[in-house]
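Posting for a labmate who doesn't have an account.
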Amino acid sequence: MTATRRAVLAGGAGLGVAALGAVGLSRFLGTSARDADAQAVLFDPDQPVLGNPQGDVTVAEFFDYQCPFCKRGHDDLMAEIAADGNVRLIMKDWPILGASSVLAAQMVLGADRYGDAQAALMATPARLSEADLRRTLNAAGFDPQALLAAYGRDRARWDGLIGRNAQHAAGLGLQGTPAFIVGRTIHAGALDRTALRGAIATARRAA
């Protein structure tokens, strides 16, 4: 796949989003010499995968369970992934909005039905207390204590994944959530369904 040497910026749509500098982009995705770094971001072996695991385009979203912009666009994201049928989707936990964000990530990563647990929390209002998390997941058919116990049993794996996500975000110069990588192009800020569809089409043409 040919690397795309640009960042597409969604004008002001993200939480604390700033323009990505050329250094931040090229460090990971700008040249073929850094393909190993792109692989690390997009194909982390511990990362749960949604959509089509064998899809011809990968979409990665750096997100936080308390980010209102992430939640506002989540239904469109999932609808487009389902309609396309050939997109590999990864949701890169980047819990930057407080303790509840960290706890939410831990609970969902501990779930055997990752997609269902994630969908339940993404459908909630932006700010979440621990009680909100427990109540929402319980209503979705999960035992919050069992989720945390499962997370704890595999803590080194999941803590490592969250830590690497944070390192990747820093290396890419990301300043907030949401932020997307579609193919090999960074989109800092929210993408509506039309923009996402166009980004996926562009990634396919570049492949």
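Reply:
Got it, the structure tokens are right above this. The two ends are 5 Å apart (CA to CA).
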